[in-house]
Amino acid sequence: DELATLKSRVLANPVYRETETGARGPVGAVAAIDVKLTQIVEHLFDLRGFHVSDAVLTDGVEPGSRVIVSRAYKADAERRMVKDQSQTASLKRVEQLPDPRFKRVFKRIKERLAEGKRWGILPLPATATPGKAAQGRGALFTYATIAIQERSYDGTGRDRNWFYVVKTPLDHIIEPVKGIQRVHDASHRELS
After folding, report:
1. For 92-112, what is the mean pLDDT?
2. Of the given ranges (38-42, 84-88, 151-155), which has the lowest mean pLDDT?
3. Are 150 and 131 a contacting pair, CB within 8 Å?
């Protein structure tokens, strides 16, 4: 498996304190990131070939939880899903996600977590603005909990959960069924 072969490397740099005169002072901390983690996150968001429209990674399930990564996808000429740069936003909070169904999804994820369900699929219908027709036919939201261990150089730290959610429009799922129904209807008309 590709994820199993990733080698962990840590990049680290000193963070210097600033003196009263604005000059660089003594080392105050060390900033570090595990390169393996960034590779895993990139792997999570490489969804070419999947019929998804959105994917998000958050640090919680509350409306005010931070969105770590948010990407939108669209179909290319070969109907493969590719990252849509024009729709990839730099979002700060779950409540700011453009599709209002994400707020409902995160509320349901919170309820399911209380039941011990750390992953699952949640169907949600299309949303309609009062006075306007609903857009699309709904979507399936697939979620998974990702356990993160934060550790400092002295070994102290904490365990956290991040949440990965992918939205798949139902149109992509039911299109094959609709195709079979069209063939069935055409055969029925020919026999009548």
Report:
1. 90
2. 84-88
3. no
**Which pLDDT belongs to residue 26?**
76
Q: Which two tokens stand for residue 27?
A: 């080392």
The Cα–Cα gap between 39 and 13 comes to 19
CA–CA separation, 123 vs 162, rounded Å? 21
Burial call 43-71: b when 16+ CB within 10 Å, e when fewer: ebbebeeebbbbbbbbebbeeebebebbb
Q: Does an H or E element contain 191, and which?
A: helix 170-191
Burial of 120 (0-12, 13-18, 19+ CB in 10 A): middle
**What are the C-alpha distances in Å from 19 to residues 13, 24, 27, 50?**
19, 6, 11, 52
Q: What are phi and psi of 101, to 5 degrees?
A: -65, -25
- Whether this prediction's pTM lies above 0.70 is answered by no
Name the residue with tokens 């992953």.
Answer: 119
